Amino acid sequence: MYRKILSHPKMVLGFTGIVTLFLALQIPHLRIDNDPASFIPKDHPTYLAKERTDELFGEDLALSIALRAPSGSFFTRENLKKLVSLSEALENIPNVSDVTSLTTTDYIEGTAEGIQVSPLIDPATFEGTEEEIEKLKEKLRSWIVYDQVLVSRDYSAVQVLVVLERKLTEEQREQVYHDTLRILHRIVGDSLEYHVAGTPAVSVLISENMRSDLRALIPIVLIVVILTLYASFRRWAGVLLPMLSITIGTIWTLGIMALCNVTLSMVGTVIPVLLVAVGSAYGIHIVHRYYEVEQEKGRSPEDILYAVVRDVWKPVFLAGITTLIGFGSIVTSRVLPMRDFAMFTSLGVLFVMTNALVVIPSILQVRHRTLPPLPSSSGKSSLHFLYGLDEAVFRSKRRSILLFVVILVLSLVGAHRLVVDNSLIEYFKKHTEVYQSDEFLRTYFAGTRHFSVVISGTKKGDLTDPRVLKFMDDLGTYLQDRHPEVSKILSFTDFIKRMNSLLQPNGLYEIPADPEKYGLSSPSELKDLVSQYLLLYSGNLSKWADDALEPQRARMMVQLRTSNNSFTRIVVPEIYAYAKKHLPEGYQIEIAGIALIENTLVDLIVNAQITSISVSLALVILVIILSYRSFWIGWIGALPLGTSILINFALMGFTGIPLDISTAMVASVTTGIGIDYTIHYLSTYSASLKALGSARDSRRKTLATVGPAILYNAVSVGAGFAVLLLSQFKPLNYFGLLVALTMFTSSVGALTIVPMALEVFKPRFKN
User: What pTM value is reported for the model?
Assistant: First the structure.
């Protein structure tokens, strides 16, 4: 079948050209989405909990805008007038559901008749006189809910929250973000320092920086791989043929993604870079072997081509299959960007491998020209290095084995220190504007990360029971006293306590939980008292209760000063444990929010990592065992791979590089790519051993035959991934660095660990 396909090279090239052109036209339709809520399955309990909470209390994702006076207090007539204008302009942006600022927020005050709800600042009457400003400050000091939410403690800064409508597309979020920036520039200008952060801003900036990365990195990685190939072959044919199969495979992959309406996330940035870097391997081995066979005298062009295909198809095919296994093992992940990455990277590898095995031989047939021989110096330096490495390893077998054991022990120690985290703001480098804005909001305000705690009763009016209100208030106190990372807690109970302080003679800012203290005889009378408070309240409680008069569900919002997810993993179980012990019977608790989404991503990443490593290593071992019909050869083939993965985790542990949505894929990429070197070594060693009989001579022959190609490929792939160090995202910087490192360790492992293991265990090759 394969020979039949190659017998029609012009037809193959024509068909390839038509398909490539069609799929290239689809690429502009690729969409980008970096909303963290879209990263987890729609049926996941965390996603469903957030949906229920948003349905009850409205969307809680907001752009956080901080305005700070350059010196002194923000509270001047000019600044407050600008705040009024800014709030009004922001409310008119399409797809904005709510704007919360000092000029749009209610204030509850006592009157002779009871209570009155009025704006903190009435834009229609506010003139900005000293008397008005002083009265505003008194109001802010009188109710703690404003502190670090709308105003900083030193009164030098204020915060405006711009809440977006639910279910917006990435394009709509981008429009809101840029409209906000334009309004800030027009109204605030340079007169005030301003910062914009929050999950919507982070999501938009990830998408925009992705586009910038794709425009910059793909040309750079192409140049790097081209230069590496030219340095290896010193002939343009050795460059252009592998690059052609890579380019075609990449176009096909991205085109099919567009046809399938698959969105690109930050992880998707790696796909074209990876295919360019990895895809060179298949073309390198074919072209390198073609150069060698063509120099043998007395061979016809057709004979040369089929000799090359006969020699390389099996290792190239096995390398492609094991690469598919490595990448495909991530398909089991429930993190959707990781799953899509696995599916389409595997598909891309299949395309690149197929093009290398079909398109390159077809071009060589149509070309009908003899390739000039490699320069006599080509490969000499690499062979000198390889022979020296072989001598060093086998000069003292005990010393080499001891060194291997020491490396394993140190790697286990480092891997034990590995930290798991996936905070979106930590994707950005510290000098970036959005990172500094987020840091400012964590310093002067309560931060941009939060989650909701929803308390539910069984019937309407259950949330007027002072027992459950007292539980909510006590839970808030417990969390703030115990954890400095909890910067602020806003709750339905804040409104009850405020009304209690204004309507009761004792003026206590508390939940009325003791009947005797309030001159009542039973808890049911206290419940009626709370109901009366709600009846008197004329403001909007929709963010905090599902019903203004007879709430069945109420909400607490826990704001976090920390940017990492490790704290969320600690505090959420604590809340459930506290509720199990103290929540009155008949009530339920549910925790939801974007902080929980990010925390769920961490759990899913860890599960995906364990599964993908286990599955990919097991399948790779099985493929090698079946290929060579030897149990021991299968395990020997996995040795350098397992060592590379362990060294990778050790480096992450020792340097503090977190295991996140990008770095979690390094192990699978290492499995997919790194095993290629071992397969090519084993394939050539097997043939050499059969022909020569001597293990030492077979090693030397193997090094001379595939050693340079393994080195060329490792350098090419490593250099290609190292380009990711230029990305604007830290996870991609780490990903590029770690994959480049594993290319070095897995290639060196294939050239040292594998021959040493073959020497020690002496397995029989039965292929």
Answer: 0.84
